[in-house]
Design brief:
There is one protein chain. By secondary structure, the protein is an alpha+beta fold. It has one domain (28-159): Roll (Chitinase A, domain 3), CATH 3.10.50. It is built from three helices and nine strands, in the order ααββββββαβββ. The chain has helices at residues 3-19, 32-35, 111-116, and strands at 52-53, 59-64, 67-70, 76-84, 90-93, 100-103, 121-122, 125-130, 150-159. Strands 1, 2, 4, 5, 6, 8 and 9 form a seven-stranded antiparallel beta sheet that branches. Strand 1 and strand 2 (59-64) form a beta hairpin. The relative contact order is 0.22.
Length: 160
Amino acid sequence: MPRAAARPVALLAMLCLACARPDAPAEISNSPADLDTATFAASLGVDLEKSERNAAGLRWRDITVGEGVEVTRGQVIEVYYDGHLPDGTRFEQTPPGRPYTFRVGVGQVIAGWDQGIVGMRVGGTRQLIIPPTLGYGPSPNGPIPGNATLIFDVEVVAIH
């Protein structure tokens, strides 16, 4: 091929390479095993060494135990909560004076909540560290990306 004809072909090849989409970044795995080595923003106060863990990979730590009867499956409760991503980004919280009400253990909330709130008492605050399998899984949900680990600080204010 003559040199003059090769130049446009080479230019086109370089342009195609420059415009090509780079390889997609590897999907972040937040499987339960990865929570042991995950990093969390210091502002969240996550302390995995002081947290408990169930077989599904949910981690929790009581900040304040509370008083009275324990929350059990099937009860309607009221909670205040603050939800964050591991980097410290807040994605949701209850407004002051307006607790969130739901029935525990019947699928009205994510599985991490259904499992993690059982055993709490009124006035108790618990930090839940929820793997994606007990949260929203691979599907994004509003400001929450797919496969996100979720950190919630939950306070039980009433049991009905």
